[in-house]
Amino acid sequence: MRGGDVAFPPISDSVVAATSRFREALLSEGVALRLVSMDTYAQNTLRAPVPAGEQVYVGQRGFGSAMLQPILTADLRQLHLENAQLFASGVWYWASWRPGGPKAFDLWSLYFYKEFGNDQVEMKAGYSTEELEFIGMQVGGSTANAVQGVYAVLPYEVGMAYFPLTAPLLNFKVRGPGSTYVKVGAQRSLDAAGGVATEARNHTGFRFAPKGDGLLAIGEAGYRRSSTATARQIWFRAGYMRNSTLYRNYADGKMEPGNDCGYALMDYQIRRSDAAHPERGLFTGASAMNVPSRFNAYDRYFEARLYQIGPFRSRPDDVASVVSSYTGHSRLFTDPLIASGTTVWRSGASLTGSYTVHLVRGVHVSLGLSYIHGPAIAPRVKDPLIFTAAYLVYF
Question: pTM of this prediction?
Answer without folding.
Answer: 0.92
